[in-house]
């Protein structure tokens, strides 16, 4: 057999392995997309079931996303010890444990237990994200990383579009009429009705537990290959020879802050739109579909990314355009009303769609042996989803639901800065203009 033929056969085998790995990672992105975007329904649902204020209801986002900040570094250590494959399985098992807590939370209608369950789910997702995002980035050329992440984003957002429809149909069914009835009920009657409402989530979460456990077992026995991110190619090793700390990569640190603000903006757009629609006088039975509209806009953006990056425009160019669109749509939502205003919040899904796949490769390129710790810091930045939505909830209480969206303006301005200049600061061979 000739050397050329052997090389072709080896390349075919490696392509099959890569393709199989992408399918498995795509399934995982689907799972944590579904679990993540159920929060958009849980916020208005728990506001009614547990009789919460606007700020208290947005603690759903805080409890879920703060786990990324707390668990990101431990996740990196765990993955270094046991590898990506076992780490993904453990992450799924931890998510199942968090979903299990929803059963006693619903039976006792205790908001603190709901929040604990969300925090534990977030812990599991942190491990999954810490493994899967660098995995899909490194599993091929860095120049086309945004395209691969966009494919994963479609899996994630299709699940996210389905999640509020499925959970909303169960948890928010006839809640507009229930809110009216609660106004005329005695305290004892309210308790009975609210307990019945709280119990609606038990069956969906039992189904989620079963699916997560099956996936955890499936990943253990899958053919996912391990990737050694501690090895550097020659050029990267030379560039990093005098770098002894992750803090020697300012473009990464700026990328972490950029991702923090982006995630906060994305979570706010998806998680607040149902409540915002209700504040605009739109019935919850209609508003419960608005998160799905936001995520469908994100899917359109991901498809554009797959087609156009890097063939027609670069990752950083996509980030620039996305930041500008975010600013325009945010201001348009603030200064309009009703369905038009809600439409602009939904269109933020389009603006946000290419930010995650563009920021990741710009931030971790050239890290070499620092890739795992850099990825862990990027995962910590997902805590932006824990900070920006509660700030919005506070502003709603002080001003109104529309004006509170001004919190998005500085977020998109900083993202624009990173796209134009910040991603080049300290990058070997480049300097900021």
UniProtKB/TrEMBL annotation:
It holds the Pfam family MFS_1. Keywords: Cell membrane, Membrane, Transmembrane, Transmembrane helix. InterPro entries: Glc/Gal_transptr_bac (IPR005964), MFS (IPR011701), MFS_trans_sf (IPR036259), MFS_TsgA-like (IPR050375). The chain crosses the membrane at residues 21-46, 58-78, 90-107, 113-131, 151-172, 202-224, 245-269, 289-309, 321-348, 354-371, 378-397, 403-420. The keyword Metal-binding does not apply. The keyword Cell membrane applies. Its main location: membrane. CDD domains: MFS_FucP_like. It is found in: Cell inner membrane. It is a multi-pass membrane protein. PANTHER family: L-FUCOSE-PROTON SYMPORTER, N-ACETYL GLUCOSAMINE TRANSPORTER NAGP. Intake of glucose and galactose. Belongs to the major facilitator superfamily. FHS transporter (TC 2.A.1.7) family. NCBIfam families: gluP. This is Sugar MFS transporter. The lineage of its organism: Bacteria, Pseudomonadati, Bacteroidota, Sphingobacteriia, Sphingobacteriales.
